[in-house]
Fold:
Amino acid sequence: MTAFCTECGTPLGESVKFCGACGTRVPEAKVTVRLALGERRSMTVLFADLVGSTQMIDGRDPEELLDGLAAYRMAIRETVDGFGGFILHHLGDGVVVCFGYPIANEDAAERAVRAGLAIVDKVARLAPAVAGTPLQVRIGIATGVIVGQGNAATARIEDNFTGAALNIAARLQSLAAPGEVIIAQSTARLVEGVFEARALGPQTLKGFAEPIAAFVPTGIRAGRSRFERRLDIARAPLINRHVERDALRRLFDAACGGAAQFINLVGEAGIGKSRLAHVLDETAPDAAFQTVSLQCNAALANTVLHPHIDLLQRQCGIAAHDEDGVRLKKLRVFLDGRPATDPDAPALLASLLGIAGEDVPPVRMSPPEQRARTLAILQELMVAQAREKPLVVVYEDLHWADATSLDFLSGFVEASPAAPLMMIATTRPGSRLEWAAHESVTTFAVDRLTAADSSRFAEAIGRNIGLSPTDVSRIVAKTDGVPLFVEEMTRMMLESPDRIRRGDLPETLSDLLTERLDRLGPARRVIQVCAVIGREFAPALLAAVTEQPLEELDEPLQAILASGLIGQGPGENLSFKHALIQDAAYASLLARPRRELHERVAQRLILDFTETAEREPELVARHLTLGGRPHAAAGWWLRAGGAAIGRGSAQEAAALLQAGLDALADQPDDEARRREELGLLAVLGPAQMVMKGPGSPDFGAVQRRAYDTCRALPDTPSLFRITYGLALFHWGKAEFATALPLAEALDAMKADDPSDEHTLAAGNMNGMIRLHLGDAVEARSRLSETVRLYRPERHAPLYPHYMMDFGVFGRFYLGIACAMTGAGDAGAAHARDAVQLAEALGQPHSRGFSMLANFIVAMLRDDVATARDWATRCRPFCVEMGFPEFVAFADVASGWAEIRDGAVENGLARLDEGIAAWKATGFETWQTWFGALRAQALVRLGRHDEARSEVAEQERRAVQNGERLFAQYLADAMPSSP
Structure:
């Protein structure tokens, strides 16, 4: 594999110790992580081809073209090298160049387009290859994921690059006119705002099914800082930066008093430095000051005074196409308005701008003197502008500044001119800037946003679309408080939600994140393995997975720690500081080695880290799934789901169990798969019941699928439990004609196997169904049998299989049956017993059931105070636990209590809210009673017609579904006619 300098990306020879281009020491390659050679990365591809080369050679000796072609190729190489590109291939007179390889650049797309425009210009200026035939070039540029993998024929990954961007760039080149650059939409999106461009519209390219939008960049937009290109950020609210904003305003006021102020905003990429640097545009009156921006550029870091050249051209109104004479005239007009004390200012500034010609005054001084006097003139012009009107200078991205620009700043700060001037610079941590250490410089460290602030920021960006709470939570978890990450992930969520769920990176962040990984050199292989293990990982597990002694991994781990990409986690563990850095490292691996690593992690967890595997079975399950072992993973997903249920977390359990089903989804539909699915479904159903209620469609769908799967297997495993769950669903939907035969089937299975489990489950199911059908006496008998049989020490372990405790649930329904058969005191006692048992068991769902038992029995006994008390206790607890049907029932009870106390209007509104929430869960049972309670309230308000309509509707419901338990309540709801 070709080795490259980790600083400048220059290819390195064999056994070299220092880079020949930049002098960086080459680290010893001690990392021996065993991965298949290859990687995935985003690159911007430039394809350049010489126009008319076939016609040039026609009838001529090829030797005649050698000098011209050599000059052409040298022009391309010099330009490409200047912008940090990598020449992949020479194809005849065509050249393929990659930007973002071997070291990624966060502005790779911009570098590629700048290089393309420069190549067109430079080739056009070459002497013709053949007399009378000027050289011209066509260029196509596209961005996308490139995959490279070594093969038997070559060890160079570069010889086997594959990706659509390569083909798109070549096709676009063929469409370009001589001297024209065409860029694909994929590139245009990344350089939006940097270049003037003409849209060509969708282009049909050979080999591509869908047309591809294309653009022709015609020049570089003047005066556009990176921040100014991100207009949407400028409109977003300033989040959690109020302390810094107020401090900047105070410093600005001091500057307006004539004491120049220098501010250094330090923070990692995307943290919001530029947003803060421009905050005065919002907090100070527009008329109070003027602003100029200087933008450093990574691609031009070695171009002397580039930010000042750009600013001076903008101030003079110089355009890219202006001839030297026009440029000189504009410079002189500018200087006439701001006379400089140095008489050689026109000559020095003309030299700085690269203006040539007979009318340009000569510079007659040594280079050091020329440099010093040029810097003095630039400082003098800036002070003069400030004295006209308070001036705010925003100097962006000083970590990319050339050395002379830094010297300008140091001299300017040292002089601290007495002028109403405020300079705000933005830099990244680790930048060694002498000027920033000066006592007159105020430095602010810009920190990450909190999770709450990140949520607010994401919601503000997506305010016109409406992000769901789940979407916002996913964005916050991925972005770690970095505003740029929040913005780009939010936009990706709005535009391509499926890509977020797949774990894709936004193209706008891919190069930035990959660049940080590339700087690791050989340790990059180690961080890829870390990314596979997880956001947090133990060094010992890393050593086991890589099959290397821990001491051999110490050096690369120290390099990664020093880079700031990972940090200390809890205990001895290490952790990625950014979830997106982990994603970038993970995405750079090819699919096959990634699968192999996942399987290897799972094996090591099972064999060597058994305590971790037992404590966190979802880790093993995830790695087996991603390692292509779905059948092995299913059992671990089941264990993880069961463990979550044991912790009382039905929502977590449902997610884990569904992950197991998803892992099996593309496997052959054979008996092995069905058995594994059945095991997962048998636990998922009860978890769905707890989350959404027995009447929810999701619970019903799981139970029906489980029932059908079970009946399709020869030995019908778990048939009893699954039948119970299906009967529970149909009971919740008040589909008693379906529920009762299923309950009777439970009795039949109990007769064949009269175990305690079967007796308890069949008795509970038959008891509650018969109660709702109106046979309260039979229901009381069946439920009394279960309550007598139940012993918590023997039967509480059944809870995870049914997600209800038969002791609590039996007392719940037995209390209601007693109240309906004239034994109200006994019913209240059973309800109180249910509370004591539920609290002893520590099961949140059972506690919710026990609270319901107490306020329902109290309502049936017309005990308003007790009903209100238990409903008031129940509601906040069940809101916190996520039991929507219990919350709805508590609202019904509270509304009824208000009505009984005489606050009929308010009580009816509360009652209606509860009924609506109950219906939203999918529940159909109990609604005849709710309707009777509602009719009673309407009568008290004198709304008799509405009351009669309500009673008639509920009577029709009772006839249709057979729920006769509350027939007397409906009959008594309307007063008897006189």
